[in-house]
UniProtKB/TrEMBL annotation:
Membrane-crossing segments per the record: 6-23, 30-53, 65-88, 100-126, 132-149
Species of origin: Tumebacillus avium
Keyword Transmembrane helix applies: yes
Protein name: Uncharacterized protein
Keywords linked to the UniProt accession: Membrane, Transmembrane, Transmembrane helix
Amino acid sequence: MVHVIYPILCLAVLVLFLKRRPYLAPVEVVAVYLFSTILYMVTVAAVSITMFLPELLKTSTEYRLMPYIVLNRMLVYPLLLTLFVNWVQGKRSWTVRAGLYVLWVGVLTGIAWLNDYFAILLYIKWTTFDSLIMWAVMLLVPVGFAKWFQSLRRKDLAEV
């Protein structure tokens, strides 16, 4: 089942990303994608190796699931975070931004549930509420990074 659903999920994320309406410059997309990749990997590592709460999260060690672990860390979550930043940048209304935020937290929590269901990431002492809180915070960080990166680009362009 995982060999059917997860490739479809990855293709859907890729198509969604390629069909997006660009609100960010290409260099900003690359910067936000790389930042989101590092942010997700550091967060998973921190949650996996936490000294105070041992064994919250484990990565599957099954050989057949390794491609999905890589796709999860390098494609699915970082592209979804980048898509969120791109779409939030294009919306001016706070109600639309809040709606996107809630929708995106739900989508990312749903994918986290799929990862647990398919044993890609094993949540041991983890609840859906923990995932909601984690994604609510993790969605704000790339948005702040994008705003900071845009201000740096504006300064560089103004100096030229």
